[in-house]
Specification:
Layout (H helix, E strand, L loop, with lengths): L2 H17 L4 E19 L3 E18 L2 E7 L4 H16 L16 E4 L12 H15 L7 E17 L4 E17 L2 E9 L4 H20 L3 E2 L4 E7 L1 H12 L4 H5 L18 E4 L20 E5 L2 E2 L6 H7 L7 E2 L9 E2 L3 E4 L6 H5 L4 E6 L8 H7 L9 H5 L4 H7 L3 E12 L2 E6 L3 E4 L9 E15 L2 E18 L1
Parallel strand pairs: 4-6, 8-18, 9-16, 15-21
Antiparallel strand pairs: 1-2, 1-5, 2-3, 5-6, 6-7, 9-21, 10-11, 10-15, 11-12, 13-14, 16-17, 17-18, 17-19, 19-21, 20-21
Helix pairs in contact: 1-2, 3-4
């Protein structure tokens, strides 16, 4: 029996155990086989090359109105029996006040072969390392870096999903990413590319070249700060994408049910020129054919003409809020932790402005943020701490937060600027250091310019300890906001 057959048998064993458990109203059981390669380079050498294959089974159950989640990499009968028992027990002991919902009628049976022409597992790891090293050496031929580190991870993932409502799915995914950090003089930049179409290795030369050019531009400017005040800010496509990813957290249905979303559907939250959709772009780092509930992944229009139109849903939240079920319960990378409602690939509609036009009367330009963080307190802990894999327990946790704290901080983000410039008469005149953009949803109506072209960023977001892939394609935007 090969690994795929062994995992398929294990999925069937767990699914059968859960189907015969009277306490279980519904369950999803998944299995995976991962053939993974990891390569780490520095600016001088190839530090390590590793490849390994692992297998596992996970399950998410609905018992006594609450959800539980567990995963195991041990596929013997005793371990699989224990997996089913402990997952059911964890749900029943939760003491959830409002029961989760599920769909007892819809079933899907399908196979999806992924978007890569050839599986990543067919490429020899030493060949991968050699191609990455060649890209580094070619890019650094005319420049001496103070430091560089490239981490490449690629995996050929075969996964299967069975549910107690008779869905049966098999999918293949070739997901790879390359994370680059390099220093040149006083400047350090970080870049990332990721895909599920096998193109990541081919994009590494461009990754190095772009990072070196950006680091040289940063290093050519003296450090500069700004007085705390509202400014006209241009966010480059990458920074705009990071901001949109932070904004769309408020469109997750469990966030809305917890009272943490600063708007209601139908509210105008931005100018009519703003349109944001969450979809699945073939080959995107965040692309999947089906979500953790076995639902096909389909687009959702979140903002149209500046108006909030839809939330992102699981089956349970959609039944409460009467929203679209579009495959938005995203599996955590590696399946170690529970799936969560999250954006997949966000697309922001482009405008008609050139970067020069956007910069003409701006005070600052932001290339990239370090990453958003939330205010201290229970509101931050709610997002970063553990929560069950359903939507109706989070509102119970939110009840512990003082209403005044929720009202004061919901929707706000602190975005430290990693790469940015002070602008004078449309020109870069200083490198921003120790400056943070304090974003609130009240800034969105001030958007008065949108770039004509988009760029795509990708990353991994954390939600309740789960690691979730996401991507954003966005143009540059100009708006008013507070810099501190």
């Amino acid at each position: 029996m090969d690994e795929i057959d062994e995992v398929a048998a294990a999925v069937d064993t767990v699914a059968t155990a859960l189907e015969t458990d009277a306490a279980v109203a519904h369950a999803e059981v998944g299995g995976f086989v991962r053939d993974r390669t990891e390569v780490i380079l520095t600016h001088e050498t190839t530090r390590s090359t590793h490849s390994f294959l692992d297998t596992g089974v996970w399950c998410r159950v609905l018992a006594d109105g609450a959800s539980g989640y567990r995963q195991t990499t041990r596929l013997d009968g005793e371990s699989l029996e224990q997996l089913a028992e402990t997952t059911v027990r964890s749900a029943r002991q939760l003491g959830q006040e409002r029961p989760e919902q599920y769909d007892p009628e819809t079933a899907h049976r399908a196979t999806h072969g992924g978007w890569a022409a050839n599986p990543l597992s067919s490429i020899d790891p030493e060949d991968i390392a050699g191609r990455l090293a060649d890209a580094r050496d070619d890019a650094c031929d005319d420049v001496t870096l103070d430091r560089a580190r490239l981490e490449y991870t690629g995996e050929h993932l075969t996964s299967m999903l069975a549910t107690t409502t008779d869905s049966l799915l098999t999918t293949t995914l070739d997901r790879a990413k390359a994370d680059l950090s390099l220093s040149l003089g006083d400047a350090t930049v970080r870049r990332r590319v990721g895909s599920t179409d096998g193109s990541t290795i081919d994009r590494v030369p461009e990754l190095f070249e772009g990072a070196i050019d950006d680091a040289a531009r940063l290093d050519a400017h003296d450090a500069s700060s700004v007085e705390s005040s509202r400014r006209t800010i241009v966010l480059g496509p990458s920074a705009a994408g990071q901001l949109v990813a932070a904004i769309v957290e408020s469109f997750e249905a469990d966030v809305a049910l917890s009272g943490l979303t600063p708007f209601e559907l139908g509210d105008r939250i931005a100018p009519p020129s703003i349109s944001i959709a969450d979809g699945i772009e073939a080959g995107s780092w965040a692309a999947r054919a089906f979500d953790a509930e076995g639902r096909p992944t389909t687009p959702v229009q979140l903002v149209d003409d500046g108006i909030a139109r839809n939330y992102l849903h699981s089956v349970s939240s959609a039944s409460i809020l009467d929203g679209p079920v579009a495959g938005s319960l995203v599996p955590s990378i590696g399946f170690e932790t529970a799936p969560r409602i999250h954006a997949r690939h966000l697309d922001v509609a482009a405008g008609d402005r050139t970067l020069e036009e956007l910069l003409a009367d701006a005070d600052a330009y932001v290339e990239r943020f370090r990453g958003p963080w939330k205010r201290e307190g229970l509101l931050r802990k709610l997002r970063s701490g553990w929560a069950p894999p359903g939507v109706n327990y989070t509102p119970q946790l939110a009840e512990q937060i003082d209403d005044e704290e929720i009202e004061r901080w919901r929707g706000q983000r602190s975005l430290p600027i990693a790469e940015g410039y002070r602008i004078d008469d449309g020109e870069f005149v200083g490198r921003l250091e120790d400056v943070t953009y304090e974003f609130t949803f009240d800034d969105l109506p001030s958007i008065d310019g949108i770039g004509a072209s988009t760029e795509t960023i990708s990353g991994v977001a954390e939600k309740h300890k789960s690691q979730l892939p996401y991507a954003v394609s966005a143009p540059a935007i100009r708006l008013s906001g507070r810099l501190d």
